[in-house]
Amino acid sequence: MSMEKRARRNGSLVAEGKQRAAGGYFTAELAVLFLCLTALLVFLPLVLPPLPPPPWLLLLVPVGLMAVLIALAFLPSDGRSSIDRLVVPV
Where is the protein found, in the record's own terms (predicted)? Predict the structure, then answer.
């Protein structure tokens, strides 16, 4: 068998393997895993005792994260040019 025929055969096998892999991302085992996780998330809060509330300072963490994200959203995307405008030459 020549190298060209072998390469064509190997190339077609690779292409077929990629097509099979692309269609097989969601398998039956993965569906069972998702169902088990869903059942745990539904039933565990009913079985476990309620937790005490967290300290009030810990509740400020998501507020701080949101403030940082909002500040970053309004900053210019080109940070270098905005820093150059803020720095005063001496």
Answer: Cytoplasm; Endoplasmic reticulum; Membrane; Nucleus
